[in-house]
Task: structure prediction
Amino acid sequence: MITSKFKNFLLFLVFGSATLFFTCNASASNSPEETAFVFNTLLFLIMGFLVMWMAAGFAMLESGMVRTKNVSTICLKNIGLYSISGIMFFLVGYNLAYGIPEGGYIGSFAMFVPAEDIATGYAANSDWFFQMVFCATTVSIVSGTIAERVKIWTFFLFAVILSGIIYPIEMGWQWGGGWLSSMGFSDFAGSTLVHAAGGAAALAGAIVIGPRFGRFSKDGKPNPMPASSIPLATLGTFILWLGWFGFNGGSQLAIGTMDDAVAVSNIFVNTNLAACGGLVVAMILSQIMFGKVDVTFALNGALAGLVSITAEPLAPSMMMSIMVGGVGGIIAVIGTKLVEALTIDDVVGALPVHLLSGIWGTIAVALSNPDTTFRGQIIGTLSVVMFVFVASVIVWLVLKYTIGVRPSQEEEVLGSDASEVGIEAYPYFK
Result:
């Protein structure tokens, strides 16, 4: 036994020393620029697949919040929209955003062609992948709001336009060096460019499509439609929370220096604390308002906190991050009741979580970032939201009066799993 352990120890020393030797030699042979290039590329790739994992989070969250007769459909929509977003961002989206002239409004309608150049500081394809998953996230937001009453192929056609044209244009205004960037607007990781934009597109769809049959009574009173699975919704929230570290941390865009590594670490901490603040505040507020702690408000409170901090996760202190996220938690609760009062049917609560909290978080940047102003943040936020909303309304109306947007009342009552997909997620639970 002793001999065996000693042999294992010697093997460990030999292989460990060899690994260290070759690693050091490899490092010594690389220039500082090459080393930074490798680390920056890894940042994009690792954070990118964390953001890609958010697609699973949205799928699980929405699956848990819809009724059992529509779960297969919502799963198909989420994996379908991710695939559509990838193709459209390759065909036209990337260059619409990043082919934009400095201070301009729109890029070029051209396919993405990678150009490897160490001067960029990272591999071109790694940047494309990282930006693409942001595009898919924007489309995912729409899926949850209009769930249970939109034809699946109509939704996919809208996803084509949103991912390929609408999102890239407004995203390019800031991240592509467009006019918002030139005027000093700041949105670090997308409180407005991704979340409020997705919320605006979702609001347009909810208005044009209308509420689910039976969601509101004739006097406008909301009728409850219980979620299919709170455990699934909770799992989805945890997955989204995890993915958010890639969302915000990767937006530092570099980790080739000590300063960048410290920045990414600070972003992780502030992101986490904002989510914690949003969830705790939402729990307390729901207890005060309704006499019980509503688990769905708690889940959306965490997500609202994450959305709120996304516009500026680096500059705030840890305490301010909790405050920013906490206000998001308030918005998640109050905003949900406001949306209901307006008889707008939002199945998952995406409008207060993404649209309203995204607006708040982007304006709040001016509280911690001295290079921004409230005026500039408000102008930028409203410009993006109004552009996406108007463009989405137009697209939804065109779809409504051509191929139609929603199934018949009979099909909706039956459930889209049976009427459109053909496979029911819960065939024994109607």
